[in-house]
């Protein structure tokens, strides 16, 4: 495998360096969050300035892409840099970081609007101003069946409340809920950029891949039992707004302090359906040990990059105290640490609630 880093001017699209001399651990893709990439450049000998005299890696002026064997695996913006001794350190973030801190400048008031329509309005607003167009296209379903706002309590996204576009995108994904990620790819000689919406989810259960400690998982897996996610009570909020929203509650007395979590399921209109959902959520919140991350080596069980963000994989190993461990986990982030290794960020599959449940 051959990996290179490509630098491109944000506003003009000009490729200013086809092989940036940067050392990184690989760009990290994230599920419904902003990806990142950190790296260092050896002492400058003048090669890190473009023909126009500006830095090749310029904050908010340069796109940086990680390409392996002609496939773009990661893309983002240079957002900060500094010096550590004689080395130049560079921080990059995915395209969606541009929405964070950017105020919505329009007026959107609706008694019934689909969250994905709001997403498209937000990105149109973000990229409408001068020197603001990332070339990012929203793709995915045109409808979720969820509706925001009512005649009595309309959904509002208006400039005079100075809403943060990035925060609103994150809240929409959680409330609907839906998944999103970024995708960058070659189309001829042009690099295309997409904000990909997945409803009810991204990814799928991968029964064709195997992740086994001591085989393609390189180190002993280390599950943890997270107290932050524990709950023995769940409040469910369904369709409707304010006091008119469908509301149900369930709990279990288990000898521990009461811990209550709130679950938003805005596409659910029936109390019986919401009861079933929060019962499942209560069970998930009391689930056992989970593995936060694994490092895997390229292997016939699972070639590096053969998975996708959002996929469910079965993690298997032998543990002291617990014995055999075998649990389905969802890939919520990953980065190639080398051409033949990858680091997967995981969460228990049962900890997720998907849309499309009305």
Give a verbal description of the structure.
By secondary structure, this protein is mainly beta. The protein folds into 4 domains: 3-95, no CATH class; 100-180; 211-225 and 289-351, Elongation Factor Tu (Ef-tu), domain 3 (Beta Barrel); 233-285. 11% of the residues lie in helices and 37% in strands. It is built from 3 helices and 21 strands. It has helices at residues 115-126, 165-175, 271-285; strands at 3-9, 15-17, 22-24, 29-30, 36-41, 62-68, 71-84, 87-94, 107-110, 136-139, 155-158, 179-187, 190-198, 211-212, 233-237, 247-251, 260-264, 293-297, 312-319, 323-338, 341-348. The protein has a 7-stranded antiparallel sheet, with no helix packed on it. Strands 4, 14, 18, 19, 20 and 21 form a 6-stranded mixed sheet that branches. It is globular and about 65 Å long. The model has no long low-confidence stretch (mean pLDDT 91).
